[in-house]
Amino acid sequence: MATISDVAKEARVSVATVSRVLNNKESVRKETQQRVYDAIEKLNFQPNLLARNFRRSESRVILIITPNITNPYYAHILTGIGETASSLGYSALIFNTGGSLEKEKEGMEMLKLRRADGAILLASSMESPHLLEYVESHPVVQCSEYDGASGLPRVSIDNHLAAKEVVEYLIDSGHEKIATISSKNTYISTKERLDAYRETMKDHGLKVPRSYIAHGDPDYSFKSGKKAAMKLLSLKERPTAIFCISDTLALGTISAAMEMGIKVPEELTVTGFDDVDDTTMFHPYITTVKQPCYDLGMRAMKLLFDRMMKKEISDKKVILSHQFVIRESSAPYKP
């Protein structure tokens, strides 16, 4: 197990300097602080937490606020956060809100009560004004979803660009009757994916009938995706392709098509978003956008650690790369 002396040697500083950094003394230069932080992370150094926490009123706990812990999309993000937190000497506490703004605020109150040193929000809606209460006095980072008006650091992908790539692919495959299954929530990703769908269709001179935009429930449940798909597939001018804003909605769509005797992808192309594990559990495997979920969690935790250590953050908007993965659920349009 690494000692404070090992950290000092690795960072090329004195033991006293490491101690000052650990206690957030501002007398240490930024460059020196960075060397100490790098050494701590490299050596997985864990100081005498009990004594230090008592002295500094720290909990050494970070809070993860999530809307639905059963959603498979969050699994790898939570792993990325948890493993990175552990490597930095922190425990992670998950607070499930069920999509309730009141519950989200209740979770954030744990910061004021000093039960957590910082928080990562996995599903900040664009209607979370209460977040402003915590911006100045507590370290908070947004991951995946965010409220741009809050000014909080965030980690995400470019949802607009990713959705545009999917719709461009469908159009290039010969589809013109392209519908979408969105969601009834106030997440930035939902807005950006729907906006990209509409804009891309318009750019190609393709009309979007109001009936071609269906909605699943706020947490993208399989059941709601199936219900929305059945509505779309019952239209007189039924779509030949459906762009779903989540993989779970896409799974519901494929189930609906099978029950209605519509073959995927021969008669209907279906695309999803996120690349959760379920997309390759059953055939047809789903064409989808692969999000770097583990890395989203890891980067969010590192960003939060920097905030808790009061390090200067040069980039508060971290955008990670996505990947469009073509599988069995999509095919060129056949008249």
UniProtKB/TrEMBL annotation:
Record's keyword annotation contains Transcription: yes
Name of the featured protein: LacI family DNA-binding transcriptional regulator
Chain ranges of the HTH lacI-type domain: 2-56
Molecular function GO terms recorded: DNA-binding transcription factor activity; transcription cis-regulatory region binding
UniProt superkingdom: Bacteria
Keywords of the record: DNA-binding, Transcription, Transcription regulation
Domain HTH cro/C1-type: 3-50
Keyword Hydrolase attached: no
PROSITE patterns noted in UniProt: HTH_CROC1, HTH_LACI_1, HTH_LACI_2
